[in-house]
Amino acid sequence: MENSSKFDSPTNISLANNDLVYNMIEYKVISVFLVLFICGIGIIGNIMVVLVVFITRDMRTPTNCYLVSLAVADLMVLVAAGLPNVSDSLAGTWIYGHAGCLGITYFQYLGINASSFSITAFTVERYIAICHPMRAQTVCTVSRAKRIIAVVWIFTSIYCMLWFFLVDIHVNKSQQVECGYKVSRNLYLPIYLTDFAIFYVIPLVVATVLYGLIGRVLFLSPLPHHPESTTERWREKSSKEKNGSQNDPNKTPNRPRTKGALSSRKQVTKMLAVVVILFALLWMPYRTLVLVNSFMSNPYLDAWFLLFCRICVYANSAINPVIYNLMSQKFRSAFKRLCKCGHEDTQRRSMYMTTNSYSMVRETANTGVEKKDKPAHKKPAVLPKQTSIVGTDGELYYSVV
After folding, report:
1. Residue 20's pLDDT is what?
2. Where are the domains of the chain?
3. At what angle do helices 142-160 and 97-131 cross, to 10 degrees?
4. Contact status, residue 359 vs residue 386, Cβ threshold 8 Å
5. How far apart are alpha carbons 233 and 50 in whole angstroms?
6. Residues 196-215: what's their mean pLDDT?
7. Integer Cα distance of 89 and 111 in angstroms
8. pLDDT tens-place string over residues 362-396
9. Where is the G-protein coupled receptors family 1 profile domain (predicted)?
10. pTM (whole model) above 0.90
11. At 112, is the secondary structure helix, strand, or coil?
12. Domain 5-243+254-339 sits in CATH 1.20.1070.10
């Protein structure tokens, strides 16, 4: 196996090389700091995406199901690709053994390919929901989204099993253990071309065409043709016939509601389009490098450019939760509730104890008055403050769950 061929793997598993730049303290410090910083933000952000969708009932939509699949795939890339590179930068050798080489390579490819298909899936879902709203009522459902996600992960899991037979560990001339190719680099060209076409070119072509059609409907059409507007017109007509009047009081609120739905759809579409654009831009350096090196007898393996390519890949897996927070009010509110969950639990317990204490004091006071005055007719104690506090507490509790 060629000593430099390991850099053609999508995540640059092993950093051991004869090039002196990999032993420079500047390179190690910069690479470790950047990788840890990006992976740390990405791991926390993607975990939050998964949690808010599972915890918050209102967030369980077909689109968000695909975003959860994308978050899980990005987590797999960050954990299986980013963190092993930190240990390689520090140790200068592969420390995870033969089983680690096979498993880590498999999960790297699985995360990369599943993220690409998840992006394609929510792009198709958005196209059907906006351009074919009547069909979307039966097609764009949470149950169907779960089935599609299961198919995506099953297919990519089987497809990526090929890498169990393509990588292995070996010892180079410097007596350092490496995880890389098992056979000659030239034999991997069909695999790279297939990956490049299926998991990069085709998703981008599909996304470009579909978002073009979506944009024509959302931004060029004067009025969105979706089920909400049809339902509202039917209600207006029924109300007019029932009351025998042309002045329907419910007619005015319907227009803002329709405009609000259109604005919400535009915002979601913009957010998903940004995710696709970042996917295309951040994966372009690495995909281009691998494709070009597959045709070159002496591949281009500059250490700093390889670090740049890896950072772009990790940034693509880490930046999506940041985009959701910046461009989606629902995700932003859900993230805030998730971060304040512990604080609200403490505040809730404090309010409960205060309410109980207040009730006990009132009961004691009422008992003393009854024993002293002995009124003929006992009036029930009305505690408006207690009822208000309990009601607020209940709303806070259920809003979090």
Report:
1. 57
2. 5-243+254-339, 341-361+383-401
3. 150
4. yes
5. 38
6. 95
7. 22
8. 554 555 544 444 444 544 444 444 433 333 333 22
9. 45-324
10. no
11. helix
12. yes
Render 267-304 in DSSP notation, one character per residue: HHHHHHHHHHHHHHHHHHHHHHHHHHHHH-SS----HH
* C-alpha dihedral, 192 to 194 to 195 to 199, nearest 10°: 160
Burial of 7 (0-12, 13-18, 19+ CB in 10 A): buried
Can you tell me the distance from the alpha carbon of 25 to that of 159, in angstroms, rounded to the nearest whole number?
39
Q: Amino acid identity, residue 358?
A: Y
Distance CA 389, CA 385 (A): 6
Helix (H, G, I), strand (E, B) or coil at 21: helix
Greatest distance between any 2 Cα atoms in the chain: 105
3-state secondary structure of 184: coil
The separation between the first and the last C-alpha atoms of the chain, rounded to the nearest angstrom, is: 54
Angstrom CA distances, 326 to 25, 62, 331, stand at 36, 20, 9
CB of 393 closer than 8 Å to CB of 401: no
- Chain centroid to Cα 286, Å, comes to 22
Residue 175's CB: how many other CB atoms inside 10 A?
8
Residue 302 banded pLDDT, cuts 50, 70, 90: confident
Taking phi over 0 as left and psi of -120 to 50 as alpha, with beta for the rest, 244 belongs to left
> Can you tell me the distance from the alpha carbon of 317 to that of 283, in angstroms, rounded to the nearest whole number?
10
Per cent of the chain over pLDDT 90 is 45
CA-CA distance, 377 to 137, in Å (whole number)? 60
Q: Which residues contact 181 (CB under 8 A, 6 or more apart)?
A: 1, 2, 5, 6, 8, 9, 166, 167, 168, 188
Residue 4 phi, psi dihedral angles, 5° rounding = -95, -5
